[in-house]
Amino acid sequence: MDIHELTRSLKTTNSSKIVMMVADGLGGLPQEPGSSTELEQAKTPNLDNLAKMGVVGSMTPIKPGITPGSGPGHLGLFGYDPLKYIIGRGVLEATGIGFSVGPKDVAIRCNFCSLDAGGKITDRRAGRIPTKKSAPLAEKLRAVSIPDSIADVEIFVEPVKEHRFVVVFRGEGLGGNVEDTDPQKTGVAPLKPVADDAASRRTAEIAREFIAQAQKILADEPKANGLTMRGFSVKPAVPTYEEVYGLKAAAIAVYPMYKGLAQLVGMEIIGRPGTLAEEIDVLEEAWDDHDFFFVHFKYTDSRGEDGDFPAKVEMIEQFDAVLPRVTALNPTVLIVTGDHSTPATLANHSWHPVPTLLVAKTCRPDACEVFGERAALVGGLGHFEAIHLMPLALAHAERLGKFGA
User: Among 30, 60, 20, which residue's Cα sits nearest to residue 340?
Assistant: First the structure.
């Protein structure tokens, strides 16, 4: 019996409300040995007060030592085994912008990037080009046409946000197992699309032709004169929140990828917020309509990826500042966590456990009086894998019955 079979058999209903506040990439590292992490350095009076009321722990997103992408990291938070449910970033991004991914589709999440005269990457995100400039560039790439000699395929190109856009190949017999072309570093050329199995060879060939034509279209752009492809994927079959938890769930997010993931697990995407404050506006307005709310904040992760320690501290403080509006709604269970760690010192995702906080009237309080990495290591939640977070939330909301006689 896996965890979803268990929750299906034990789930009960009541009027409780569960809120999961996710500060993307929350966990960090000290800049110097023995100094504070970004979370520990930030002024977080509201998180610290919640730590005194609730229980704190240290959460491993997948398995010890494994660095998660955002997709697997969030799947774990939602209680889905990331090693069982493989959802590629392309499908997440496409679904998040409202594109209906079909059974003949391979979806790809793409980045505009900056290339030097020798074709080497100087900026993997094209200076985080604003959406108003990147969207017209994505639309220009709709001119790419794949010759019949390569494949009978339909191509869709859709803008997403900032440097991101989505490409979808639609045709018979296309596999999604193609390696990313983003080398994850500057000073080198983008990689070639390489198929990992026979079914994906045509997909890789189509991608190579797409990139070749796209490079010509973008050649004269000052920043976004190149592209990389990530997360080649087909749509998987995933059980919904209603099925496995009995929850009417809602997602509130700014970035499309997180909306896409939430939608794939059966959450309703509500509102069109552009800021964290607007996300809380949506939460307040929809409070009576749902049992579970996932609220996503991106910029803790972005600043960590930029390697900007002070800016990540500032984003954590912004996140902390909205929490009184959340607690004023009196949720039965409030969870504060991240999908993974993004230490500014590494300027990337990492394998480090994520500080996690759970507040409910049914908590057995621990001795933690602040919320941070050191406190999480000794908190009452202990060290646990992310897939156990949702059963804990359900239990504290008194939505799980007794197992066995």
Answer: 60
